[in-house]
Amino acid sequence: xxxxxxxQAWPVITDxxxxxxxxxxxxxxxxxxxxxxxxxxxxxxxxxxGVKYCLATNSGTAALHMALAALEIKPGDEVVVxxxxxxxxxxxxxxxxxxxxxxxxxxxxxxxxxxxxxRAITPKTKAVIPVHLHxxxxxxxxxxxxxxxxxISVIEDACQAPGATCQDQKVGTFGKLAAFxxxxxxxxxxxEGGLLVTNDESCYKRAAQFRMFGENIEMGDKNAYDPKRPxxxxxxxxxxxxxxxxxxxxxxAALARxxxxxxxxxxxxxxRNAQILNEGLKDLPGWIAPKELDGRKxxxxxxxxxxxxxxxxxxxxxxxxxxxxxxxTKILPAQTVFKNMGYSQDVYPNAQELIDKSFCxxxxxxxxxxxxVELCEHYVDVIRAAGQTCxxxxxxx
Length: 397
Ligand SMILES: Cc1ncc(COP(=O)(O)O)c(C=O)c1O
Fold this sequence. Notes:
Layout: H1 15-27, H2 36-49, E1 53-57, H3 60-70, E2 78-82, H4 88-95, E3 99-103, H5 114-120, E4 125-128, H6 140-149, E5 153-157, E6 165-166, E7 169-170, E8 177-181, E9 194-198, H7 201-211, H8 217-221, H9 250-260, H10 263-281, E10 287-288, E11 296-297, E12 303-307, H11 310-319, E13 324-325, H12 336-339, H13 349-356, E14 358-361, H14 373-388
Parallel strand pairs: 2-3, 2-4, 4-5, 5-8
Antiparallel strand pairs: 1-9, 6-7, 6-11, 8-9, 10-12, 12-14, 13-14
The structure holds pyridoxal-5'-phosphate.
The site of pyridoxal-5'-phosphate has 14 residues, from helix 3 and helix 4.
């Protein structure tokens, strides 16, 4: 077997990225409520998605929290979230003092199962947070229909899915609000950061206030940001509600703007690599490759395969020098924080099956969309060769 071709680390930083960041340092404006890089990023990302409003934040979790606050979710309210996702989806609900209610997922899309969502609805349900996990759009159209019938607001957790589409419409534009993450492992990365988007003006205003100490910056700082005037000249310093400090800083915004220019190219690379892997794994006994369902296009934030003897298969691939990672090790209700709150762990069979019988090829550090054709073909060769040395039942034990 040939040696493993080189892995490409993520994020890829170009000369243009470095110049964009240096320009901020030369300008000397590093922060501020209406600072130039942040406001430009907000405009550019809103245009990229085709939405009216965008607020840059210091994390995807902050964007989720702001979305819940914008909907005026309060203690006693219930918010439905999938049992398999990154913990931040449910943690943001706790941060807002509300109650996360877990529902099961679909094995094919990794996203919230619409029927399980509908069963979880009670008179207290005020919102649902479907997640486009691993860049794969969930069944957002059906989830929207159910939510509408029950007068429930939809917040899309699109943290792993910038650029993914459903019927040619970008995810993040289906719900009332949506959150994206710009943390370094994401397809659009700036270190730490997030973006909240919406078409709803009042949600946008409430979220903006929540982002900055509960201040309504339009009251005191309505005029365009002027780097030459003192930052605190016109600020009202009048908090009208509870707020946090969730603003993004200028260096991160400059890097994100520069990276946004290449997002579609990287996503296309991910699509190409996924096709190579899908094709190579499609008739391999015992393996289920990720599948894009009816009109949905993934950006392959992760390439997750389902295979019965997961631990043995992973060990074999790792022995052969291939990166193979599990990512989440427990469904959310089984994580200690939720277990201690009394959540039951036994009623999410699909989420549990995915935890027990799947893993991801490549890693956070070297994600699938950044890799070469040669490396993806090498994965296929190694996996197929390993498959020949063991049958599908015993896998590679
Ligand atoms: C599905 C999902 N939701 C929310 C988040 C939170 O984003 P951040 O880490 O930027 O707060 C992440 C990030 O890892 C995520 O993967």
